[in-house]
Input
Amino acid sequence: MSQLAVILDEIHSSEQNSDVHARAVIQLAGLLQNDSSGEIQKQLQQNVEQLIVADVKSKLIKAISIMTLLFHIDDSIASRIFLDSSQSKAEELIRRDFDIELLERFLQLISACCVSKSCRTEVEQKYIKLIASSLQEEESTQNIQALAASILIKLTATPKPNLTDDTAQEFEQLRKDIEVLSNILREIAVVGDADSRANALEGLTYSSLNPTVKETLINDKKFVTTLLSIMKHESKNYSIIFAILTILSNLTSYPEILTKEAEQLAKLRRYANNGKNQDIEEDKMQITRRCKKLLDLKILESISACMSSASPNSRRTIGKLMKGLATERAHRSGIVQQGGISILLSILQPSGSASSAENFRVTQDERPNQFAISALARILITVNPTLAFSGRTSPVAAVPPLLLQLDDTTEENTNLDIFEALLALTNLASMGNENISKLIAQRGWSQVETLMLSNNSMVQRASVELVCNLSGSPEVAAKYLDPDDKDQKNRLRILIALADVEDLATRCAAAGTLATLSEWTPASEILLEDERNLRAILRILHDEDSGVIFRGAVCIRNLIQSPTTKTLISRIRSAGGIDSFNAAGSKALEPEMQTFILESKKLLESNL
Output
């Protein structure tokens, strides 16, 4: 007996959850992976075909079981064997004797093969009537009903070109019946046994993309609480947990904000479909209400319960779910209260690394969870970071993942993602935690510096505001004031130029940064070293906005009062310092500001 035959016998004869079965599956996967000649695939197909031709129930079940498993190991190999091997023997036996066991195994195979487009076409053309009739048969078990309904939903979820008129009519009716099918699965998910529940939930991962089905599911409190309970008490049932998380993610996902390029592609797709928009855009208020219902049912407690054993796919889906929940500003404080920050940081910590910011690294083999980073950013924009972190969770841990979202060379990061990450980092920097400032300066400075020159005004504004909040730290101040840094002069010119751009908030932030930098001891010599820089700083006092003017006045006054030489003071006067203060005083509306500018002017004059 060949090695392949021994492995197949072990798979068929052993219990599915046994060590023997698991070992045999691994061995089969290994054989196929190393089958460069294709000999193992050839033997496998011959083995399956011999079992089918034998026309014996037990051998048919073995052939069906092998192919079902094969779709989970390598669907490309499984698809070829499925398409080359006739399944009509099994269908004939099922129709003749209505064999429950054989029907259930056959439906399991059909469900597995739906991952392949070519196999779906085969199923649609040959087995659709058998699948549909399985729902109506009185002898059908819950699991058969769950499998049949799940398969029909999978098949209706994809476009159906080149169907015969009769088959096309059947599918159109099934598409109308998706709500009925979903109701069957929803009921089974609540009252069914483990197998039927798993199949029902798999079907609902597809149908829960339908807006009407979403509303039906969220309004069934018993169904939702059942899902949340399973997450708490069956956290190691990985396939079921992933299905539940996918359903909940579908319920909470908002329409994607498209770039201009993506909008153009969407228009082309609609044009190709004769102007029909196949994706029904939901009312955002409906999505918000669904998120609120889930938060009221303490969904984060259930998520937290299954976090420790969650698979990589489940963790990514949790990130998407959390992003949906955090989209509405009013929900964010509640998410923090339910432990949402800890969940997000746990998701974002790469596998196998220590849970500290210093050890946070993403290897080339790991994709950052963009959904979770986006959720974290949105929460930290709205919620005071001082209140968002408990004594056990350091705000420093939030910095590394947010820095990942500043990479504008990654397609997954949109301008909105970058903007939100910058705002979140700005709020963290406002905490005055020196470790936060140091970490951003060490790991994120190159991205922040690049974004200060972004063509997107909102991204540029947010990056300058972040620098303003960081400029009180030695690490960032040195970027502008350390003469030994080869890029120092260029950075300073860019910062001063940003104090004269069209966007008011950017001008305020740039002027505020200069005001903060002027408090450092070497500032007077560095800022006044270049005549062009000096005149540009004085131009800030001629701005139309009093807030910008005040920041410029603070900068000049700090330079005047610093331990500097009379030569530098003289340069300020020669560059038009007194006239600039006069211009600023004429625009100052608040008495306090007028007093400050007048006193600053007197200080400049007193050094004559």
Q: What stands out?
A: The CA atoms of residues 337 and 388 lie 8 Å apart.
